Inverse folding.
């Protein structure tokens, strides 16, 4: 590592210009809680760091069309202290609140969590279950894509060179809908998900499930949006039989690896158990909503 | 110097003012405000930064090392390899240590040092490491100790033959030693048993996980003196071992100790310190090396992995008649596990007539193990206490009553030949029975485990001194390390003796030049042994103050006595004199015979064995196999708690380290023989929310050999933990786990195989 250049532009255009004009390798830095560790471990050796924390539009949480727009550089703690967002998207908050400690979340951002593309990251499953989209700005303009389209493999995203995730968009929450996220870790905290499950479901007036999204983390190369699992709930009252089917579908969707964090068998079993538990929490919330 | 204390015994009638209270630690404020200086906090002018290149291979011949490109890099001042270390004979203590610190013929584990660089910055040093070309010839490796014992296993050391086996051995082996311990006749014992229970158990290495990685600065002068500043559990041992492997007269090495951010046995032997010394000699500049966490995991001592096969028998009325065991201890690439502790301590809580154990120490391609609180004992007690609980259940006796029925007492002889003096195991078991915890009803679905533990407690060579300042304050100095608050406990004992408030006493840790030799601060020996020398030094100072006062009063020394911090005439017959306080006597030293001090060196004996009982309640998630520790109580005999909060801290810390080892901590190796989890993310020590508040009960059955009755308390608190957690899980799910760690995948598998898993 020789002569690492650090810049902290105050607007998106300046950030784009820095990223576009960089010689050698450039990296966006938000909280740095993944990036600095990777630099320290010599996993990456960037020549330029573009800190995005001074860009105002990336730091705000706004209500838009009855939904929310959350700047990609909003920190975990800022989001967790936003009462309106917390009340509306408790499952997303469950994911965010599991990231590290209070100190880590004082810096860590949702944008960084998604763009770091760890299969075990905690906010992508609830974001994906919530149907959130990301606004991406780059040399070729701006586009919105579903969050599930960002990560393409461990440490790899679909972002083109010079692109930045600017914000995440959450549509207005329908009535009788609820979502939740839980992960399994051997420790109570400061650990990495062995399995994570986000479930978002919507009921009709009678309590029949009319829409569902189920997303599994840490059981494949990226977070998995599992339509087959969602299908087990839709049209049911989310009763025992439906939950059994959900557990089976969640286990069946897993494509995990055997590694130091868990065996294939263990991850597959726990994905089913957790899917069921999370669906029950989401159901409870949907009924109150 | 002859010591006053040699046969000073515990006095049950003494009235204590300081001992038994909880003053603020004198080193505490610096620690909580960040002023305290740890190993990594030393900076010297002109200092260079050292980095070590480590083998990525588990086993390979070190064919060649080309350092020329690294040496040519601007900013690099020295590069060291095996050629910079004297060649000592392989298989000797020095030869092994030297080869562990810098690989010579072969690399023997992932992380084994092969070269080192000193440069003007850390990043230049790191870059220089990448320029060193090492040619390896990769050999097959072996990680598991049982596999390492099999014929045809890759051999680590061609010189190795098994100690303790009769007859000539033609071929090299990985079995370092085979040790048989026996007593009575086990065949007869089993014949007399109504119930026989047996099991096979295994454990993985865990790491001491001190939060402070090893850090040191070495500074070699042109005339061959070496000053070394480091975090260590034994300044003298570091000096002597570094002298031995570098062939330097130890008088030329001066080792100073930093504050210690945890050691737990792992800082009893050197790693990077001799490398820093060599680099400093080569560069003629001070050199600092601070290990990274990755290096700490890959190259410093974890504990032994073990396999054990244990069999025990008892009569219908609950008397244990025989105990037998086959034990295997993995020691890493070099011998030194202290595996004998296992067979010596495993059954020692119980008064047994018939024991037969065979224990083997085995090398394999892993970092050399190092001491950890009660080395080689907790992982064996894990199995023993499973069987003890099973026997209690078979007999139909209460778990504690069963253990009481078999408890070791004064006069019982152990398998290692010691006959116990007064010990407190019975009192400890009785105290456990009286706890709210044991009396409480177990909530539905939880399990409760009981286990007991024992540690010998150590003593040995110790030095200390005590000086009275002209103002009447007290400075004490010891050659031991302070790994867990010994300075405050020693200050309290000095204050008690001298009748002064503890705030008037300050304790200092010496360097190697200031004090005579000390054994390492380990084995729960320090507060006991250093306490003995400080009490003795204080009594010398008191005797001297009596002489001074008698001289000032013009009376015979027999006519005065020291009471409550002052010299008094012992009766009115001696004369009417106002008592002279320490401060008054000290104020006159320059007109009498100079400063007043005491100074003691002793080969301390009489450490009292320690016993403990752990009670654990747990709940098991039957969908995920995760174990939640709900309630934990440690009951242990401290002899006398000098500073009860510190004792409680030892009990709680031991339990928590044990919970980590029981549930999650393990070294995970890949097929390639590389360690997969050298960091705290995947090597899971417990975090605060993983454990409940650990309740403690301090039992005090005084050690008759210590003036205040104390026993060591550092190791006993880990010994029962694995057994207690295992028994609690067994009680909760109906299946006693036999393999450590009892991690969620393993517990879920046990549940599934028995059809007991749920959502
Ligand atoms: C002690 C500790 C515990 C942790 N525990 C958890 C945990 O439990 N769960 C979990 O999921 N994570 C955990 N993490 C990982 C990390 O904190 C999170 O992934 C965090 O959300 C990363 O956010 P950041 O802002 O710090 O990202 P950074 O480190 O700044 O960036 C991460 C990556 O994303 C890129 N990036 C960042 N922002 C953008 C953007 N807006 N557009 C494009 N690219 C961008 C960066 O270039 C980089 O490649 C932990 C980390 C630590 C140090």
């Amino acid at each position: 590592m020789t002569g690492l250049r650090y810049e902290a532009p105050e607007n998106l255009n300046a950030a784009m210009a820095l990223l576009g004009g960089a010689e050698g390798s450039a990296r966006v830095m938000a909280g740095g809680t993944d990036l600095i560790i990777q630099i320290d471990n010599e996993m990456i050796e960037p020549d330029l760091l573009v800190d995005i924390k001074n860009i105002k539009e990336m730091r705000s949480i706004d209500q838009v069309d009855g939904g929310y727009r959350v700047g990609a550089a909003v920190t975990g703690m800022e989001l967790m202290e936003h009462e309106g967002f917390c009340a509306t998207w408790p499952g997303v908050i469950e994911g965010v609140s599991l990231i590290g400690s209070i100190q880590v979340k004082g810096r860590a951002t949702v944008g960084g969590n998604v763009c770091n593309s760890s299969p075990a990251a905690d906010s992508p499953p609830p974001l994906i279950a919530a149907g959130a989209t990301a606004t991406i700005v780059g040399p070729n303009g701006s586009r919105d894509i579903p969050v599930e389209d960002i990560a393409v493999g461990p440490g790899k995203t679909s972002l083109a060179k010079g692109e930045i995730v600017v914000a995440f968009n959450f549509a207005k929450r329908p009535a009788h809908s609820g979502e939740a996220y839980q992960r399994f870790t051997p420790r109570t905290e400061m650990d990495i998900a062995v399995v994570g499950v986000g479930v978002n479901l919507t009921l009709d007036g009678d309590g029949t499930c009319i829409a569902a999204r189920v997303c599994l983390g840490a059981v494949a190369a990226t977070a998995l949006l599992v339509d087959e699992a969602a299908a087990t709930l839709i049209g049911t009252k989310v009763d025992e039989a439906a939950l059994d089917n959900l557990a089976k579908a969640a286990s069946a969707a897993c494509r995990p690896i055997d590694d130091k964090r868990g065996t294939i068998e263990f991850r597959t079993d726990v994905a089913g158990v957790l899917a069921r538990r999370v669906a029950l929490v989401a159901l409870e919330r949907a009924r109150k909503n | 110097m002859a010591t006053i204390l040699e046969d000073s015994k515990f006095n049950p009638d003494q009235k204590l003012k300081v001992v038994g209270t909880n003053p603020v630690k004198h080193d505490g404020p610096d620690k909580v405000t960040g002023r305290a200086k740890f190993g990594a906090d030393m900076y010297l002018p002109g200092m260079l930064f050292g980095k070590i290149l480590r083998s990525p291979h588990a086993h390979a011949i070190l064919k060649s090392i080309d350092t020329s490109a690294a040496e040519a890099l601007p900013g690099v001042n020295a590069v060291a390899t095996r050629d910079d270390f004297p060649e000592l004979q392989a298989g000797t203590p020095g030869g092994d240590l030297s080869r562990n610190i810098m690989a010579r013929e072969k690399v023997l584990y992932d992380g084994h040092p092969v070269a080192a660089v000193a440069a003007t910055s850390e990043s230049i040093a790191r870059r220089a490491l990448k320029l060193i070309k090492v040619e390896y010839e990769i050999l097959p490796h072996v990680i598991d100790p049982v596999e390492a014992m099999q014929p045809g296993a890759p051999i680590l050391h061609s010189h190795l033959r098994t100690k303790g086996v009769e007859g000539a051995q033609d071929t090299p082996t990985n079995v370092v030693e085979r040790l048989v311990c026996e007593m009575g006749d086990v065949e007869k014992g089993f014949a007399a048993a109504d119930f026989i229970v047996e099991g096979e158990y295994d454990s993985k290495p865990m790491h001491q996980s001190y939060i402070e990685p090893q850090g040191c600065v070495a500074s070699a002068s042109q005339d061959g003196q070496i000053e070394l500043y480091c975090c260590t559990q034994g300044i003298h041992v570091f000096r002597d071992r570094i002298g031995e492997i570098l062939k330097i007269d130890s008088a030329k090495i001066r080792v100073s100790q930093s504050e210690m951010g945890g050691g737990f046995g792992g800082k009893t032997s050197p790693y990077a310190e001799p490398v820093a010394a060599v680099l400093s000699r080569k560069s003629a500049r001070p050199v600092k090396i601070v290990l990274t966490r990755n290096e700490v995991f890959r190259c410093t001592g974890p504990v032994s992995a073990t396999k054990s096969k244990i069999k025990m028998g008892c009569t219908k009325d609950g008397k244990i008649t025989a105990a037998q065991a086959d034990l295997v201890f993995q020691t890493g690439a070099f011998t030194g596990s202290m595996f004998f502790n296992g067979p010596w301590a495993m059954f020692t809580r119980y008064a047994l007539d018939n024991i037969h154990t065979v224990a083997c120490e085995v090398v394999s391609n892993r970092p050399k193990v190092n001491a950890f609180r009660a080395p080689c004992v907790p992982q064996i007690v894990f199995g023993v206490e499973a069987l003890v609980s099973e026997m209690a259940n078979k007999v139909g006796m209460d778990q504690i009553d069963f253990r009481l029925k078999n408890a070791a007492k004064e006069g019982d002889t152990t398998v290692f030949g010691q006959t116990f003096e007064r010990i407190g195991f019975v009192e400890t078991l009785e105290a456990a029975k009286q706890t709210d915890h044991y009396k409480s009803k177990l909530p539905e679905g939880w399990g409760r485990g009981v286990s007991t533990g024992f540690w010998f407690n150590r003593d040995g060579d110790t030095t200390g001194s005590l000086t009275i300042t002209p103002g009447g304050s007290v400075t004490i100095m010891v050659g031991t390390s302070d790994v867990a608050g010994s300075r405050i406990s020693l200050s309290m004992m000095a204050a008690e003796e001298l009748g002064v408030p503890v705030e008037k006493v300050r304790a200092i840790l010496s360097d190697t030049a200031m004090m005579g030799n000390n054994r390492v601060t380990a084995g729960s020996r320090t507060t006991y042994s250093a306490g003995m020398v400080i009490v003795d030094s204080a009594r010398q100072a008191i005797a001297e103050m009596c002489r001074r006062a008698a001289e000032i009063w013009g009376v015979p020394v027999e006519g005065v006595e020291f009471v409550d911090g002052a010299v008094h005439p012992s009766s009115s017959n001696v004369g009417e004199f106002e008592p002279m306080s320490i401060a008054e006597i000290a104020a006159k030293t320059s007109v009498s015979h100079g400063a007043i001090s005491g100074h003691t060196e002793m080969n301390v004996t009489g450490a009292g064995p320690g016993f403990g009982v752990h009670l654990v309640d747990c709940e098991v998630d039957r969908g995920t196999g995760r174990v939640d520790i709900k309630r934990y109580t440690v009951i242990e005999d401290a002899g006398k708690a000098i500073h009860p909060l510190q004792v409680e801290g030892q009990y709680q810390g031991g339990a928590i380290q044990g919970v980590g080892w029981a549930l999650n901590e393990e070294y995970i190796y890949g097929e390639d023989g590389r360690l997969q989890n050298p960091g705290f993310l995947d090597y899971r020590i417990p975090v605060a929310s993983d454990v409940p508040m650990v309740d403690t009960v301090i039992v005090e059955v005084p050690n008759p050999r210590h003036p205040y009755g104390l026993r060591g308390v550092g190791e006993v608190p880990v010994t029962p933990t694995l057994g207690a957690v295992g028994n609690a899980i067994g009680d909760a799910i109906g299946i006693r786990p036999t393999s450590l760690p009892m991690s969620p995948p393993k517990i879920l598998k046990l549940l599934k195989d028995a059809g007991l898993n749920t959502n």
Chain B has three domains: 4-36+461-603, 40-140+209-299, 377-457+608-753. The pocket of flavin-adenine dinucleotide is lined by residues A 27-35, 37, 52, 72, 98-100, 104, 107-109, 111-113, 115-116, 121-122, 159, 164-165, 190 (CB under 6 Å). The radius of gyration of chain B is 27 Å. Chain B touches chain A at residues 123, 126, 623-626, 663-664, 668, 676-677, 681-682, 684, 686-687, 689-690, 743-745, 748-749, 752, 757, 759 (CB under 8 Å).
